[in-house]
Amino acid sequence: MLAEIGFASTSLSLIAALYAIGAALIGGRIHSDRLILSARNAAIATFPLLLIACGMLLIALITEQYQINYVRNTTDPSTPMFYRVTALWGAQRGSLLFWSLTMSIFTAAALLISWKNDRRLMPYVIAYMMAALAFFLYLNLFVENPFERVWLQPNGPNDNAVVDSVLIPPNASAPAADLLAADASGLNPLLRHFGMIIHPPMLYLGFVGFLIPFAFAMAALASGDLSTNWIKATRRWTLVAWLFLSLGLILGGRWAYDVLGWGGYWGWDPVENAAFLPWLVGTAYLHSVLIQEKRGMLKVWNMFLIVGTFSAVIFGTFATRSGLIESVHSFAESEIGTPMFLFWGSITFVSVAMVVWRWRQGLLQDEHHFTGWLSRESMFVLNNVIFVALTLAIFWGSFGAPILSELYLEEDITLGVDYFMRVTPPLFLVMYILMGVAPITAWGATSINRMGRSLLVPLAATILTVIAIVATGTTTPVAVVGYAAVAMAGYVALFEIYRGTAARVRARNENPLQALVALFTRNRRRYGGYIVHLGIVVIGLGVIGSTVFQVERQETVDVGDVIQVNDEYQLRYDNFVVQQATDGRFIDRAYVTIIRNGEEIRQLEPRIDRFVQSDNTLMPMTIAGAHSTIENDFYVLLGGAGDGEVGYNRATFTIYINPLVNLVWWGGLILILGTFISAWPNETRSATARARTTATPKMGKRAGAMT
Amino acid sequence: MTQTNSNTSWEKPRNKNFEKLTKQSGGRWKFLVGGVLLLGAIGYLVASSTMMGAQFFITVDEIVNDSAYLGEEVRISGAVIGDTIEQNTVFVSERQRNAITFTITHIPEEFDNLAEALNQSVSDPNSTRLDVYYEGPMPDLLQHEAQAILTGKLGDDGVFYATELLLKCPSRFEGEGSNQQLGEEHPGMAQINAG
Asked: Which terminal residue of chain B has fewer beta carbons within 10 Å of its beta carbon, N or C?
């Protein structure tokens, strides 16, 4: 029954989406408000319908309906309740349905919120959003159906008489419940981690969220309303999508760091990169679109950026889920490769063609020209060039070179971590330098003199910082240069916040705290942006420290032995035990003590959990022991104790000392805070909105509302 | 007074326009040259990094039969023969390390089913074999008929010295009557980076 309801409900939402496309386009053409309204309602209806479908799958997972293949493949009778719920997005089929649900949430919300303000764009917005949703629903129904069940059909066409089908085939019966339960395989233990539970939904929300600015941009092109309306309508949506995508990436890194046991958080794996690409283009877009809003420039470029962002989202989804690239990361090879590729190709082609069409009509003409190098516009353009260069370089390394070599060369070539570690640092360095310079340039042009004055304090602070860094013994040139650029960007952001506050204190006699709060509430977008910059600065410090100064040591020792990790640290191997936990897993546990300069500072218990699988094999999961401080992480992995020649008393340990790695996570939190400030609806109107209020009273109100 | 005024009003716009024009076209050149330099630098960076970071992904057949790969860093993929897996303690610069040796067999570049390809490769006595040496803890997925994806160099002694070992065991996670392979769904499943 659950499968039937879920299937029917998904089918209905596909019908609703298709109807919405047709009604919206026809309604737009014949100017029928009734028809457009009906299209909107159909589009919104996909949300409750998909909620029901996901609800049915969830109930099936919770109530152990093992006849449904998806339930049998992601859970087993021993799976705890929490992981039954999260299994909803634990594997390909469920996660695709979940993806459709998130898409319908976003589209319903966007349609409801922007309905009144942007009527002219709406028919096309609906058509674009629903076309994307319809494609994913097609996958849900015809390619990767999560409601598919297994049936026994004695007189069926197959020899083994086992049939996969959503609906009951003729003369078929369900297999016995105990057989199905015995055949069930639980969630991969590696995925049982907090980061892993919320990392995929965050990433999906980020990916799917970019559909909204994309659909509005395409609607602007289709309708010919190429004013800044579509940008204003979508800027908060873009920030929301960007926030979720950032969160997804950071949580993925945290999960990798905690669970995968290679001492790092970013491995330049093609699938990681696939999720990073839309972030990079999206970040370029977030900045560049400001120029269009303020100066009416870069209209064509912004169109290409938003097309690029959404295209990267779909490409990433395709690359991750189709088995395109040899990656331990990817979903198993599946049949969605071809349809996803066609969808990606056609959506990119059509969008680019639309941009070119309006461009040649002269509707995307810039209203201003560049006047000088030292203007905010030029800095933003440079920032864009860097982000796009990063995107292309990472795309080339992860997909371009491997695919081209496979197609056209005799040998397959892959570009390893070395490539990324060589190509990205110079670009990131320029990015941080621009982050330090751009905020103090003015729109139009800035004189070197004026800029120098604003730079004086941050520059002095940076020089002092560099002296302090070198004096405390960090002399590696790469790191010093990196720290300097990153620190400078941070000081500029802090100094700008200080200057704004000080100006208010002077001009309005507010106390500093009042002034600071007022500064942020009056201009959330700008100062929230500075907080985001600070977050990126803190992440940068963490990345430099943990990359350049990581210490790695691997050694096999007996109980009682001491490993000399570096001049400062030692690790003593105290004891080893094998235990069995109440849930049946076996635990190999080593007791070790960290010694720093002769002093015992902490005992750790690195361990290997071995989960008993349904086929009685053991699925191991290595859990690191970590001593975490703001200065560094001391991270120990137990490997291979008790096997073969290496007896129970001997164990191999891999030790990492990761300086400043915790700043990566702290920076992530600051970034989230900053994005929240930027995206929060304005209660108090900004200066520009106020200026507009004096001209046309209604406009100001609109700009202040959540658009 | 009037004359001066009319003079300025006549002169000013002309000058302004003239200035604006030259500034704009001069500015355009500056932007163009700057842009070309910038793109050139980025292009050079990508190209040189590609040359440095390129790894050939080859088969066991190719590395064994073509001496051009001797001493070059390459990536190879092969099927693990379970009986050959051995573990020893070795001394590397006065530290004890765990060393693993095993043999892999050739698997073709393209196949329909990974589990079948691995099984065929291991059972075929004529398939090309290659001995592998790797230092590090024993990976749990290193077992019979696992697919090993190795990065490293072939030594003069005919042994492949791997610095990175990635393992996949397709048969292990495959549910009956399904095309889901849960075990392969997520990052770095069995990735082990050696020091």
From this structure: N
